């Protein structure tokens, strides 16, 4: 395999490196939950948390970019603008090296989820602008756009918009008004997820269409209906991030109503499920297909959680507890990571007959089971904390921590098992990548 053949490959493998870093940092961070002295003098949770979260977010962005470049090369039957793509990759590498160096040396200065010094937003912003340009240059030869091209386009444009909005706080006019600052910050945190989901969802539609040609996913009217719904959600569903901010009430109501429209996803998923089960028998051995089925399950799981969290009174109880961590990790692992793992196998180990491995089978099931226990233990921790928060008379903090202990241990244990299972899948993948096939 020639790694330099397509810049999409470079992006996918860089993404895999970030994913690997993210699970190592995440595992180390989880130990600190129970043993606060662990690595206190070197890294500590102060450094490990942003390292873990940034590596996880960058894995999604960088690998999704790789999947889009790979898909466009297949769609347009040529790999155009290779130099521009390499510059794009170079800008990312420059930003990543700078950001992780700053974290390692304790140089922060950013805001939640983007805690690196804000100056690195410039090369990332430029990389994204270049991505936008390359994307439009590449797709201009496609006459009738399938749904996934629309998804990528809206995701790329909207990401740039929100990424800039996310940095409004560096301007004193926004930073100096507490409410204005908070509304923009939380709105940006909510909508940026919608933007990168578009990139990832577009990629899964492309892969699904290629796996099962009969499905015609690209021009299916249901797929377009889902696209418009996700687009609508991407624009407006951030309202539920602002329940606790004393802003105009209509924003809260609109956020709630829009979040509820996502029930339509449920109906669609159940409707499709039966068909997928019969297809699953034919494709089950093929890893991209298996990861897509897993994504479907986690989409269902996370939407249930998110819909309950959108109900204002429940939101009030869950706010500031590990429920939010469960929501963030449940979606980034269960939804984005499952799709991107499918993309890694689909684009880099394309032949179906190569997809047989005991290590991968064990890793795959290890991930699904550990992730369920991992998320349930986080939710249980969140539940214990919110009961404590509202109880009368309130017990001592130490008493609350003691109540939480069994769930904390379960969280660490399942986190370790999740980490090992991911390692199994990564090693199985690397082995397939470098194995000489006849
Ligand atoms: C391998 C097992 C993993 C372990 C043990 C782990 C552990 C942790 C820990 C301890 C935190 C800090 C939570 C806090 O501040 O209280 C965290 C946060 C987070 N993790 Fe992981 N993690 C793992 C894998 C992942 C993966 C694969 C992703 C995504 C690709 C991910 C995404 C996140 C995100 C987005 C947050 C921030 C959550 C928030 O908003 O509070 N994690 N993780």
Describe the model:
- It is a single chain.
- With 438 residues, this protein is mainly α.
- The chain has a domain at 270-438: Cytochrome c oxidase-like, subunit I domain (Cytochrome C Oxidase, Chain A), CATH 1.20.210.10.
- It has 15 helices and no strands.
- The chain has helices at residues 7-34, 44-76, 82-104, 121-139, 147-165, 172-175, 178-211, 221-236, 249-260, 263-283, 287-309, 312-318, 322-348, 358-390, 397-434.
- The longest helix is centred in the last third of the chain and has 38 residues, at 397-434.
- It is globular, with a radius of gyration of 22 Å.
- The mean pLDDT is 86.
- Protoporphyrin IX containing FE binds next to helix 1, helix 2, helix 13 and helix 15.
Summarize the structure.
This protein is mainly alpha-helical and about 450 residues long. The protein has a domain of about 170 residues: Cytochrome C Oxidase, Chain A (Up-down Bundle). It has 15 helices and no strands.
């Amino acid at each position: 395999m020639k790694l330099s053949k397509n810049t999409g490959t470079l992006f996918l493998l860089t993404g895999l490196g970030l994913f690997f870093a993210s699970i190592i940092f995440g595992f180390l961070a989880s130990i600190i939950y129970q043993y606060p002295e662990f690595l206190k003098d070197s890294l500590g949770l102060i450094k490990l948390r942003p390292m873990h979260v940034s590596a996880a977010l960058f894995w999604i962005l960088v690998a999704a970019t790789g999947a889009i470049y790979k898909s466009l090369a297949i769609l347009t039957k040529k790999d155009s603008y290779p130099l521009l793509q390499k510059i794009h990759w170079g800008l990312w590498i420059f930003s990543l090296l700078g950001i992780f160096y700053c974290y390692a040396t304790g140089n922060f200065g950013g805001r939640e989820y983007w805690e690196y010094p804000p100056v690195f937003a410039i090369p990332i912003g430029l990389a994204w602008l270049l991505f936008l340009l390359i994307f439009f240059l590449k797709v201009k030869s496609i006459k009738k756009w399938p749904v996934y091209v629309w998804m990528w386009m809206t995701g790329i444009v909207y990401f740039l918009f929100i990424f800039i909005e996310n940095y409004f706080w560096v301007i004193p006019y926004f930073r100096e008004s507490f409410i204005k600052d908070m509304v923009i910050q939380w709105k940006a945190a909510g909508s940026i997820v919608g933007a990168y989901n578009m990139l990832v969802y577009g990629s899964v539609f492309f892969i699904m269409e290629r796996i099962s040609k009969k499905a015609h996913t690209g021009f299916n009217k249901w797929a377009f209906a889902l696209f418009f719904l996700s687009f609508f959600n991407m624009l407006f569903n951030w309202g539920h991030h602002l329940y606790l901010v004393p802003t105009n009430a209509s924003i809260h109501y609109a956020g709630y109503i829009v979040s509820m429209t996502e029930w339509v996803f449920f109906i669609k998923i159940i409707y499709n499920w039966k068909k997928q089960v019969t297809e699953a028998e034919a494709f089950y051995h093929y890893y991209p297909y298996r990861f897509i089925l897993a994504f479907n399950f986690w989409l269902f799981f996370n939407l249930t959680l998110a819909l309950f969290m959108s109900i204002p009174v429940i939101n009030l109880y869950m706010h500031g507890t590990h429920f939010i961590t469960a929501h963030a990790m449940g979606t980034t692992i269960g939804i984005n990571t499952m799709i991107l793992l499918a993309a890694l196998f689909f684009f880099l180990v394309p032949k179906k007959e190569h997809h047989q491995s005991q290590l991968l089978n064990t890793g795959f099931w290890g991930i699904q089971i550990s992730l369920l226990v991992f998320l349930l233990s986080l939710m249980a921790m969140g539940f214990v904390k919110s009961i404590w928060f509202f109880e009368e008379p309130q017990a001592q903090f130490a008493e609350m921590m003691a109540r939480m202990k069994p769930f904390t241990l379960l969280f660490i244990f399942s986190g370790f098992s999740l980490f090992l299972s991911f390692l199994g899948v990564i090693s199985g993948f690397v082995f397939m990548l470098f194995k000489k096939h006849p």
